[in-house]
């Protein structure tokens, strides 16, 4: 029997109202153990109010090597940023 | 070509991430260094674990327990970082147990009295912090992030050790003697934790070029000595080095010769506790085998009930 256990990625919400942030991973054979291990490993100093765990194999990542091509479509659309527009002199609250 | 692009990225202080292309030797160097670092955290639990049941007060016991638990956590952060390089946790543990992978030699010294808990926290963790602060800027992303997290947690370790030393140094004459004895035994092994002098360190070249290491061994050692001498003075203990002297011109302390024969002899397995440390690790690992197997079976059973 192979001894390899599943790896789970851990995301922690540090305070109610904030987004969950990736902090690392843990080894565990089931989801309950993954949550408990994540609690023991990543929240020893009150770092969190909520934890997500997800099996690493379910994470799909873009390749950083061809990152440029992948993100290219957003490069030439500077009109998506508010600073692109000329505002008439004296206009306020916009 | 790829190697050149890789080096350009490093030179621009960009981090290398797990899926990025990297030279075979960069990967190899990292696996060796990070796993050695992880194993040190895990084996390092033993000399301190030795005193949990004999801590002199409930306060001291809770603190020591929390500290040893932190060391386990640090080991796990580092194993995680190492696994991103394509080696499994199981292989890493195997390499430790086979003696193929090393851990810091400092943990092959015994902890003989409660004062040693002070010396370990103050000096051993102190030296580790100097090294780890520098490694926060290492070029490999997961290693760097692990170091940041570890450094945040380590400063309590050093302070609790220094507090023990200060209390004992200001206690009864026997307690002060114990504190001085602990300092005498741990001083030289602690400053040798930074590794051989750079002139004798075979692996430094590429590690600096690739920014795995950010500072030379001797530089880090000097920094540790400079900051520790004053701390010893404050609590009235004497660092066991007759050649230790402030050098006005350099702005650093001069210090005596380290005993490298002893260093290499401990690295090569002949320290007072090498055998004991590994035997204990193997025993704990094999004693836990049934738990790992039960957990696996439980998860299989759950999966089959889910699908039914």
What is the CATH domain class of the domain at 6-61 in chain A?
Alpha Beta
Q: What share of residues are in beta strands of chain B?
A: under 5%
Helix coverage percent of chain A? 10-25%
Order of helices and strands of chain B: HHHHHHHHHHEEHHH
Q: Please state the CA-atom Rg of chain B, rounded to the nearest Å.
A: 21 Å
CATH topology category name of the domain at 6-61 in chain A: Ubiquitin-like (UB roll)
Which stretches of chain B are low in confidence, meaning pLDDT under 50 for 5 or more residues running? none
Please report the distance between the alpha carbons of the first and last residues of chain B: 54 Å
Dominant shape of chain A: elongated
Order of helices and strands of chain A: EEHEH
Protein architecture, described:
The complex is a heterodimer of chains A (94) and B (308). Chain A has helices spanning 31-42, 67-71, and strands at 6-13, 21-28, 50-55. Chain A is α+β, with helices and mostly antiparallel strands. Chain A has a domain at 6-61: Ubiquitin-like (UB roll), CATH 3.10.20. The relative contact order of chain A is 0.18. The mean pLDDT of chain A is 89. In chain B, helix 2 runs antiparallel to helix 4 (58-83), helix 4 (58-83) runs antiparallel to helix 7 (141-169) and helix 6 (115-135) runs parallel beside helix 8. Chain B is globular, with a radius of gyration of 21 Å. The model of chain B has no long low-confidence stretch (mean pLDDT 95). The longest helix of chain B is centred in the middle third of the chain and has 29 residues, at 141-169. Classes of the chains: A alpha+beta (94), B mainly alpha (308).
Core attributes:
heterodimer, A: 94 residues, alpha+beta, Ubiquitin-like (UB roll), three-stranded antiparallel β-sheet, 2 helices, 3 strands, 18% helix, B: 308 residues, mainly alpha, two-stranded antiparallel sheet, 13 helices, 2 strands, 68% helix, 2% strand, globular
């Amino acid at each position: 029997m192979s001894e390899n256990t599943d790896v789970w990625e851990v995301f922690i919400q540090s305070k109610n109202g904030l987004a969950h942030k990736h902090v690392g991973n843990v080894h565990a054979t089931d989801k309950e153990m993954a949550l408990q291990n994540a609690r023991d490993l990543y929240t020893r100093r009150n770092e969190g109010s909520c934890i997500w765990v997800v099996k690493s194999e379910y994470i799909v990542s873009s390749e950083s090597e061809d990152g440029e091509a992948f993100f290219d479509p957003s490069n030439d659309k500077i009109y998506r940023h508010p600073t692109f527009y000329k505002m008439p002199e004296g206009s306020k609250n916009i | 070509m790829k190697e050149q692009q890789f080096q350009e990225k490093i030179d621009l202080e960009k981090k290398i991430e797990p899926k990025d292309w990297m030279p075979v030797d960069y990967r190899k160097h990292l696996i060796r260094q990070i796993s050695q670092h992880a194993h040190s955290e895990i084996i390092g639990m033993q000399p301190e674990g030795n005193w949990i049941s004999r801590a002199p007060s409930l306060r001291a016991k809770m603190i020591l327990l929390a500290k040893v638990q932190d060391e386990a956590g640090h080991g796990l952060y580092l194993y995680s970082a190492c696994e991103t390089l394509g080696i499994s946790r199981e292989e890493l543990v195997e390499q430790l147990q086979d003696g193929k992978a090393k851990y810091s030699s400092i943990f092959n010294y015994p902890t003989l009295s409660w004062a040693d808990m002070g010396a370990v926290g103050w000096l051993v963790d102190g030296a580790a912090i100097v090294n780890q602060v520098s490694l926060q800027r290492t070029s490999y992303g997961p290693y760097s992030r692990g170091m940041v997290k570890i450094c945040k947690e380590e400063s309590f370790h050093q302070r609790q050790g220094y507090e023990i030393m200060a209390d004992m140094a200001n206690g009864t004459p026997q307690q002060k003697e114990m504190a001085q004895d602990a300092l005498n035994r741990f001083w030289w092994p602690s400053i040798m934790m930074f590794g051989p002098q750079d002139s004798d360190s075979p692996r430094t070249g590429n590690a600096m070029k690739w920014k795995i290491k950010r500072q030379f061994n001797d530089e880090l050692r000097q920094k540790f000595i400079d900051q520790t001498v004053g701390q010893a003075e404050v609590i009235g203990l004497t660092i066991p080095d007759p050649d230790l002297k402030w050098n006005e011109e350099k702005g650093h302390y001069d210090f005596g010769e380290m005993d490298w024969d002893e260093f290499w002899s401990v690295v090569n397995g002949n320290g007072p506790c090498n055998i004991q440390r590994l035997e204990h690790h193997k025993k704990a690992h094999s004693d836990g085998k049934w738990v790992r197997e039960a957990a696996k079976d439980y998860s299989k059973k759950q999966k089959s009930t889910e699908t039914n």
